[in-house]
Structures are given as structure tokens and as C-alpha cells.
Structure prediction request, 284 residues.
Amino acid sequence: MNRSSLKTTRDQYHRGARQIGFWLVLPLICILTASGCSISSQIQQQLKIKTSLSGARIAPVGSVVTESAGASSTLDLDSFGASDSSLRLAASATIEHGPLRFFIDHIGTSNIGNGTYEGPLGGADLPLDSYRLETDLSTSRVLMEFPVPGIESDAESPLDLRIVAGLNLTELRVALQSIATPTTFSEIDELAPAPIVGVHANYAISPSWNLDAIFTLLPLSEITDYDAECVDNLIRIGWSPSADWNLFLGARNHSVELIGEQAGRPTEIDLELDLVEIGVSYSF
Prediction:
């Protein structure tokens, strides 16, 4: 792989990300348009919006296994020191209109490490050398949430249980570049949009305390050339000093496993994000 082809790949990657980003916000555009083509004062009163911002300690872990000529080589993030946690900002928003609710969030991290590697990766066979490893892993999602039929949710009920469905966008990049010879490098870029199904439960422990959890399963294999599995779990405990403010502490795990081919070589990508966050949300 030369630098010109690498630039072309990256340009295509970012164009695809922008296009899919539009589809991520399309459901919100639809609901606002369906509500009257413009946000009048009456429609604003019908919408309930909650935004959240948190400081998140994020750590990527996992490995990439590539097989060539019957032998496999493993690129492990931990052995390169590329799985160290870092502090990032995470954001989410909830828009509620009648029985429907939209939930949007995004997390991601970029890590750099150094280590020794020999073997295939992406479209190149890398000689034994010391390499700089760059990893980027992020996930964005839009969920549409529906009340579970037969379970009434009201102000007196401690449990709000909903079915969720929507779209997730997982972006990952793994790149190795020789420290001594910068022209020796290779990378893997994957952009995987996937449908989401799952459940969202919010339980009121008391008038001031609540427990919030989202579990989603992403069947990536239905829309990619990979045998794939992706699971996302989020749990938060929150305290509300007033009706508008909520302080929360949460944990999340986003794991993705892709089994397919890179440049004709069998490749298994097994990566995940572990996240611990503390933040605040405001409703208006």
C-alpha cells in the first residue's frame, strides 16, 4: 500500500462517515418535520429534550489476528501499550414526543503505542521491526424507543421499560508504521453501519434516585461481508436534585468482533471500549 492509495482510502472513509452521519440524524429531522414543518411554540411545548455531557475514562482493548500462508500473526493492543485509558468527553441527547423517544449518543477514543511486530496486516507483509501503533475506535447511535405493549408507564410507576431500535455506526482504524523506516506501514479501516435492537429500562429507586440501563445487540453480519457480533451495554445511576437536573455515574462496554478478509487474507478483529463516566444532564 502506497501513500496515494492510503490517502484515497481515507478520503472515501471520511466521505462515507459524513453520508452515514446524515442518516443518523434523519429520524430527528423527520419527527420535527412531521410535527408541523417548523418548531412553533406549541410544538416546543410538546417536545421534551434532555442533553447530557460527561467526562469519561475510556480504554480500548483487543487484538487483530491475520492469517497468511497457513500461519497467523496477532497484533495485540495491550502489548503495544495502546490500551491505556484516557479521559474524553462523551455526549448524548434524548428527545421525547408523545409515546416515542429518540436517544442519540457518541463515544470514541484514539490511542498510540510502540512495540515489535512481524507479519501481515491489511494489505502488507511487515518485516520484524519496531512499529508505532495508532488505533481509533468510536461508536455513534440513534435509537427510537417504544413503550413495551401491555406495560403501562406513568408518573406513579417506578419502571419505564421500552423496546429500542435504530442505527449504530462503528468506526475503527488500526495502523502500524515502522519507526526506523516510515515508508513501511499498513492499516485497516472499517466503517460498519448496523441496525440495533434491544431494551431500555429506567427504574426509579426513590423520588431522587434512578437506575438507567440500555442493552443492544447489533447484527453486523446482516449488512457486511463479515461474520460479526457487536454488543453494547450501558448502566447509570443518577441523582436528581431538581426536576430538571440529574447527576449520574455510569459504566459502558461496547464490543465488536469481525471475522472476514483483508486484502484476501482471513482476518479476525476483536476490539472493545470500556468506559466509566461521571456527568450531568439537563431537561428543558
